[in-house]
């Protein structure tokens, strides 16, 4: 007993097992860093040989037809398609997503919340190929052609954009709602005390206070739209196109990647490499948007208490 | 949280004398109405989507549809047998990969890493960014490093399952971290005070307490992986699998790939098959989500 009491505290024998476990856990955590590194290496390796052959044509050619003879490598048509369809999607997703988030955070009775939230979760869980099917087999023929009587192609940007919009709605609704609910109750009570109405509190107090989260949700929504593959691959057509006519078909960066990967393009061919060139364009675009969203939240977040 | 008075009561009391003539009741009602419209729109679209798929696909759904192989010539004799088996193989690989790696990462970040350290913050930011990488880019990663390149697994179930695993790993890590964080510190301190080592504490106390949350996260990540199509296209999935896959070395095929292949077919009969396939896929997804919600509600502990 005396020996135990006099030996200094805190100098335990090193536990090799504990150290080994810690190292193994660290290795697991490193998998995610390794994933990012490998994504970059995978994209860069083929993209470098693509740009070695194509050079600045990627930015200067007007049209995108890398598999034709003679080929043409301008990315603009694909960017046009990507941002046209994402733009249509945001016209749907921003008002509806924000409307839902204000409703859930400021108006809804807890019982109604308990119904609406699971429905949004189901909407999140719908695989995107199903949204594509919905756009192609219902939105275009039934809504756009039969009910609205639009002159519209079978594969068109409008149906794909509308379906994509509803895919993005839950993203915007849930992130915005979280940031609105984080606004302290005291702010609302102060405004009510000054005679503000519920609408005024929602739009003039809560909305501005939650703006960082709201903007982040919209940027993340755009990023999801830009990276979405299956809806556009199924419903927007494969033809690279210029313009803003949503009744026409548009290829996007992701449709080109999907359609080309589906075909037979052996490694080393320009077709194979063009998938990677599109991939790195997509990666850079979405990474930039995600970084903006994270920065925005950090910089403009109102911190209470 | 401090006790709060229902805002309506305050507003009602104050509105009358102060805001008379300035607030427009109709404006208030119109605003609330348009918010309700937004909720209604989301419900309506989901209902239309489910209704459309049911109307198109219910007729083709049968026991034979579940077991038959797809046919290019006879749509009536087509089925999702190989695709369904492929999805099961992919999920097995995916689960075997993400469950240990995801939980280990969550444990490392919550229990070991110094929150302020550069490396922990870097890993965290990295996971945030990975969650925003488009799924098709993961397909490229799989194609370059798993299917071809150093591992050269070919377009097998193993390569496909690992690709999906990398894609959904961030989902599980985030859920796992939340579950571990929710375990109160007193449990850890109690365990340590009784002489347990750090790992004994984590293994015997923290992880069992966090298990429901982790299991929910695992199911939700797998349900995300099940519906993914784009990465499998890039990895080199087979569109018309003529036989049911029987091993992890067989070519990738999966339910969403089969659905996509039928959707792309302009013939009307194949559209019905696609819808029937979607019904099966959605049924699996709903079942998984129901299990996850049930787990969460049944075992969720309030500390």
Structural features, described:
- The complex is a heterodimer of chains A (305) and B (303).
- Chain A is an all-alpha fold and 305 residues long.
- Chain A has one domain (79-300): Orthogonal Bundle (MetI-like fold).
- Chain A is built from 13 helices and 2 strands; from the N terminus they run H-H-H-E-E-H-H-H-H-H-H-H-H-H-H.
- In chain A, strands 1-2 form a two-stranded antiparallel ribbon.
- With 303 residues, chain B is mostly helical.
- Chain B has one domain (67-299): MetI-like fold, CATH 1.10.3720.10.
- Chain B is 72% helix and 0% strand.
- Chain B has helices at 7-18, 25-57, 63-67, 81-112, 118-131, 135-147, 157-181, 185-193, 198-226, 230-235, 255-263, 268-299.
- The chains are: A mainly alpha (305), B mainly alpha (303).
Compact description:
By secondary structure, chain A is mainly α.
List the helices and strands and how they pair.
The complex is a heterodimer of chains A (305) and B (303).
Chain A: H1 2-6, H2 16-54, H3 57-60, E1 64-65, E2 72-73, H4 76-107, H5 110-125, H6 128-147, H7 157-181, H8 185-193, H9 198-209, H10 211-227, H11 230-235, H12 253-262, H13 270-300
Antiparallel strand pairs in A: 1-2
Helix pairs in contact in A: 2-13, 4-7, 4-10, 5-7, 6-7, 7-10, 8-9, 10-13, 12-13
Chain B: H1 7-18, H2 25-57, H3 63-67, H4 81-112, H5 118-131, H6 135-147, H7 157-181, H8 185-193, H9 198-226, H10 230-235, H11 255-263, H12 268-299
């Amino acid at each position: 007993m005396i020996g135990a009491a006099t030996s200094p505290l805190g100098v335990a024998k090193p536990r090799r097992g504990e150290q080994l476990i810690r190292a193994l856990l660290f290795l697991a955590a490193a998998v995610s860093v390794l994933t990012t590194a490998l994504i970059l290496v995978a994209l860069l390796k083929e993209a470098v040989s693509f740009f070695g052959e194509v050079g600045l044509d990627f930015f200067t050619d007007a049209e995108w037809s890398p598999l034709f003879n003679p080929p043409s490598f301008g990315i603009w048509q694909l960017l046009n398609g990507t941002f046209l369809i994402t733009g249509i999607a945001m016209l749907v997703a921003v008002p509806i997503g924000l409307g839902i988030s204000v409703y859930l955070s400021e108006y809804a009775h807890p019982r109604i919340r308990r119904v609406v939230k699971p429905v949004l979760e189901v909407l999140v869980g719908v695989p995107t190929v199903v949204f594509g099917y919905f756009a192609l087999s219902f939105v275009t023929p039934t809504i756009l052609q039969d009910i609205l009587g639009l002159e519209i192609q079978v594969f068109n940007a409008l149906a794909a954009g509308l379906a994509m919009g509803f895919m993005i709605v839950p993203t915007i609704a849930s992130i915005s709602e979280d940031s609105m609910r984080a606004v302290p109750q005291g702010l609302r009570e102060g405004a009510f005390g000054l005679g503000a109405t519920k609408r005024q509190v929602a739009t003039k107090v809560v909305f501005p206070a939650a703006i960082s989260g709201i903007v982040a949700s919209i940027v993340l929504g755009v990023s999801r739209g830009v990276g979405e593959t299956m809806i556009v691959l199924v419903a927007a057509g494969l033809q690279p196109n210029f313009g803003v006519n949503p009744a026409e078909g548009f290829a996007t960066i992701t449709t080109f990647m999907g359609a080309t990967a589906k075909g037979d393009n052996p490694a080393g061919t320009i077709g194979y490499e063009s998938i990677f060139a599109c991939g790195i364009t997509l990666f850079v675009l979405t990474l930039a948007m995600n970084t903006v969203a994270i920065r925005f939240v950090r910089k403009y977040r109102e911190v209470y208490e | 949280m401090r006790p709060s008075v229902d805002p309506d009561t305050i507003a009602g009391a104050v509105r009358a004398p102060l805001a008379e003539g300035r607030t427009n009741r109709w404006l208030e009602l119109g605003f609330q109405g348009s918010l309700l419209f937004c909720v209604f729109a989301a419900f309506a679209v989901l209902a239309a989507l489910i209704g459309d798929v049911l109307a198109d696909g219910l007729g083709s759904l049968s026991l034979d549809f579940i077991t038959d192989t797809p046919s290019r010539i006879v749509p009536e004799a087509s089925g999702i047998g190989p695709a369904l088996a492929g999805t099961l193989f992919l999920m097995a690989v995916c689960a075997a990969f993400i469950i240990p790696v995801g939980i280990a990462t969550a444990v490392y970040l919550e229990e070991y890493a110094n929150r302020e350290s550069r490396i922990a913050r870097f890993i965290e930011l990295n996971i945030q960014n990975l969650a925003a990488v488009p799924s098709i880019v993961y397909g490229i990663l799989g194609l370059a490093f798993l299917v071809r390149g150093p591992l050269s697994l070919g377009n097998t179930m193993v390569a496909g399952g690992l690709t999906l695993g990398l894609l959904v790993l961030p989902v599980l890590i985030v859920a796992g971290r939340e579950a571990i964080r929710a375990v109160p510190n007193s449990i850890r301190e109690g365990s340590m005070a009784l002489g347990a080592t750090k790992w004994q504490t984590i293994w015997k106390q923290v992880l069992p307490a966090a298990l429901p949350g982790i299991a929910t996260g695992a199911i939700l990540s797998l349900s995300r992986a099940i519906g993914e199509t784009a990465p499998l296209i890039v990895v080199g999935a087979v569109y018309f699998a003529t036989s049911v896959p029987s091993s992890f070395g067989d070519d990738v095929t999966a339910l969403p790939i089969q659905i996509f292949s039928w959707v792309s077919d302009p013939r009307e009969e194949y559209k019905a098959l696609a819808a029937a396939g979607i019904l099966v896929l959605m049924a699996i997804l709903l079942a998984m989500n129901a299990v996850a919600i049930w787990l969460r509600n049944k075992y969720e502990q309030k500390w």
